[in-house]
Amino acid sequence: DQLTPVTVDPEPMYSGKEIFSTLFPDDLNIKVKSKFCKKCEVCEEENCLYDAFVVIRNGKLITGTIDENSFGAMQSNSILQRIIKDHGNALGRIFLDSATKMLLYVIRQNGMTMGLDEVYVHGHAYEEIEKILDDAKTESNKLIDAFHDNDTTILRRAPGRSMRETLELRIRQVLAEARKKAEETAADFIGDEAHSVIMTKSGARGNILNLGQMSA
Recorded E.C. number(s) (predicted)? Predict the structure, then answer.
C-alpha cells in the first residue's frame, strides 16, 4: 500500500527498485559501485548512464543495479554487511531470508537462461576481435624474433629472469591483454540486457572470461 506505481495504465505497475526497497531498514544509507561499472574517467554517481552506481537513501533504492558488489556477504561495504553492522545479526538474517525468497520468486516467474544467440558475435565486433587476436600474434612473433636475434631494444631482460623466461613473461602479458580486450568487445556487443551478461557481471554464474571464450 505504501508503494507508488510507475504507471497505472492499463494497470498499476511497480519498479523493481521500489519493490526491493521494501526489504531495507528505513535508516539504511549506502553508496557503492556495482560490477556493471564501466570505470569512466569521471564517475557520475547517481547520474550514471549505465545505472551502475548504487545509491540507497533512507531505505529507498534510488539508483543502481543490485549485484554481488552491493549485496554480497563477502563484500566489506555491501548492503548485508551494513545492515548487520547497524542493526545486528537478527535483522541481517531477516533481510537475507526475505531477499532470497523474493529473488527466487522472480526467477521462477521470469526465468534466467541463455542460448547460443547470446554469445554469438558477428559483424563489426567479430572483425574487431579478429584484429585484436592478429595484433597479439604479430606482437608475440616480434618478441620471438627479438629473442633469437638477441635484440635487447625490443626484448629487455626482466630483473632476476633469463632471456627465455623474459620472453615467456612478455608473451603471456601480450596474450592476457588481447584476451581482456576481446572479452570486453564481446560483452559490449552482446549488451547488458542479455541473460548471459547479467549472470556473469552480477556474479551469479560464470565470469566474463567464460563469456569471452565462448564468443571469440
Answer: 2.7.7.6
The sign of the torsion formed by the CA atoms of 38, 114, 204, 100 equals: positive
The string of pLDDT tens digits covering residues 89-113 is 999 999 999 999 998 888 888 777 7
Phi, psi of 79 (to 5 degrees): -60, -45
* All cell numbers assigned to 124: 563489426
Long-range contacts at 58-64 (CB < 8 A, ≥ 24 apart): 58/26, 58/27, 58/28, 58/29, 59/21, 59/24, 59/25, 59/26, 59/27, 59/28, 60/17, 60/21, 60/24, 61/17, 61/18, 61/20, 61/21, 61/24, 62/17, 64/32, 64/34
* Spatial contact of 14 and 50, defined as CB atoms under 8 Å apart: no
Go through the domains of the chain in sequence order and give each one's CATH number. Answer: 16-110 (1.10.274.100), 116-215 (1.10.132.30)
CA atoms within 13 A on the CB side of 85: 13
pLDDT tens-digit readout, 21-72: 999 999 999 998 887 787 888 888 888 888 888 999 999 999 988 888 888 7
Q: How many CB atoms are closer than 10 A to CB 87?
A: 15
Question: Is the separation of the CB atoms in 59 and 21 below 8 Å?
Answer: yes
